[in-house]
Amino acid sequence: MLKSTQKLLILHNIRSVHNTGALFRTADALGIDMIYLIGETATPFDRFGRARSDFAKTALGSELTMPWKYYKTIAPVLTKLKKEGYTIYAIEQSPDSIDYKKAKPARLSACILGSETRGIPNAVLKKMDHILEIPMRGMKASLNASVAGGIVLYRLFDR
What does pTM read for this prediction? Predict the structure, then answer.
């Protein structure tokens, strides 16, 4: 049975095992219902099915309790979620982005983070309902993926 609200996290080509592990902990802390791991994103297990100690180092046990699914490509995930009525938010710098503080969570919400170096591809961004950006006030133009995810996910889902 579906809960009255559903919160999902999509990690698209996150290269760093440590970022992915940290985002598992954040998802667990927020009560996120499912994490979708896409493409290059590391899973809690290596290709031989063994638990990854580098993943566990930052996930701190959340890799054992957080539900997750792996997909090679993002298209089937987005198609499925759109069909089920999810509002999908991207965390990305874009000409079409809005300040993350203005976002309102939907009853069925999914939030996507992309590659640390390439971001979320434009073809994927075009399928988003909202693109959320964290205003940068210093000299640096971006934050670490797990830090950016933590900031936006707490704002969006901790209500």
Answer: 0.93
